[in-house]
Amino acid sequence: MTHLSTLREPALAFRALHVPGRPLVLPNAWDAMSARLAEDAGAAAVATTSAGLAWALGAPDGDRLDRDRAVEAVARIVAAVRVPVSADVESGFAEDPDGVADTVRAVLSAGAVGVNIEDARYDGAGNGSLRPVAEQAGRIAAARAAADEEGVPLFVNARIDTFLRGAGGVDGTLERAAAYRGAGADGIFVPGVTDPETVAALVAGVDGPLNVLVGPGAPPVAELAALGVARVSAGSALAEAAYATVRRAARELLEAGTCGGLADGLGYGELNALLGR
Predict the structure, then answer these.
(1) pLDDT at 10 over 90
(2) Which helix (H) or strand (E) holds 131?
(3) Three-class SS of residue 114?
(4) What mean pLDDT, rounded, does the chain reach?
(5) Which residues are bridge partners to 232 per DSSP?
(6) Which has the closest alpha carbon to 165: 241, 62, 86?
(7) pLDDT category, 276, cuts 50, 70, 90?
(8) At 143, is the secondary structure helix, strand, or coil?
(9) What torsion, rounded to 10 degrees, do the Cα atoms 104, 68, 243, 63 define?
(10) CB 213 within 8 A of CB 192
(11) 15, 153 in Cβ contact below 8 A?
């Protein structure tokens, strides 16, 4: 459990990293080692990937992991690094705003100074379903109020899944962004968009720092920076790449009996030292 009075400075430091044109770049982590590797590579902060974290704990992504296990994993990540940590809490691990507030308090106790809260639904309401704007704004307001009551300037990053779910374009996204900012969100995260024209329209229309998701085929960070993006996330892409390596190497070992896929692995001593400081 983290003493909340110690979180104010790292929370302010994390907030200050969101600069349009000089974005915070986050190679998202899913466990203590991936977090340490990101920090060792020079990351100014660590953000979790809800998908990678859920997979590492044996659950599928999409509101299937329970809050306690997720928060325990976040606490281990916080303990492994010296930089600020932001936690992806999916849609809040809760049915209602009070539950979202409880999640925020738990994440703060784990030592995180930021959260991602998404507006996608995973309750069988239909493919492409997002929470109604007013409902999601109420959940964000509850998160904001919970952090403020604890005296921590938590960075609330409101994720809008209009493009990922095919549930709206720029206008619909900006409508949601305005409502979520009005409810207390600090930043807006719009995954599923990397084309420069759309990114530029979102930067111009969002009153606050814009976060985009990158992966294979996305523009370089420098190009996104020139468009005014303030935060760049890799999401689950690093976890996917790591698991692809596991599958390739396992198949080679089992089918060919050789170990070529293991040739570029990090050394035991190097990895052990990273967690043994």
Answers:
(1) yes
(2) none
(3) strand
(4) 96
(5) 25, 212
(6) 62
(7) confident
(8) helix
(9) -70
(10) yes
(11) yes
Please report, for residues 26, 30, 87, 195, the alpha-carbon distance to residue 90 in angstroms, rounded to integers and kept in the order given: 17, 14, 9, 25
User: Are 203 and 181 spatial neighbours (Cβ–Cβ below 8 Å)?
Assistant: no
What is the mean predicted confidence (pLDDT) over 40-61?
A: 97
Q: Which two tokens stand for residue 30?
A: 């899913």
> For tokens 């959260």, what's the residue?
115
Give per-residue pLDDT as tens, 236-261: 999 999 999 999 999 999 999 999 99
For residue 48, how many other CB atoms are within 10 A of its CB? 28
Residue 242 has φ and ψ, to the nearest 5°, of -65, -45
Query: Is the model's pLDDT at 125 over the cut of 60?
Result: no
Look at strands 46-47 and 231-233 and give their pairing: unpaired
46 and 35 Cβ atoms separated by less than 8 Å: yes
Give pLDDT tens digits for 165-213: 999 999 999 999 999 999 999 999 999 999 999 999 999 999 999 999 9
Residues 18 and 187: beta-carbon distance below 8 Å: yes
Domains along the chain with CATH numbers: 4-235 (3.20.20.60)
Q: What are phi and psi of 71, to 5 degrees?
A: -65, -35
CA separation for the pair 168, 166 (Å, rounded)? 6
pTM of the model: 0.95
In the chain, what is the straight-line distance between the N-terminal and C-terminal CA atoms, in Å? 21
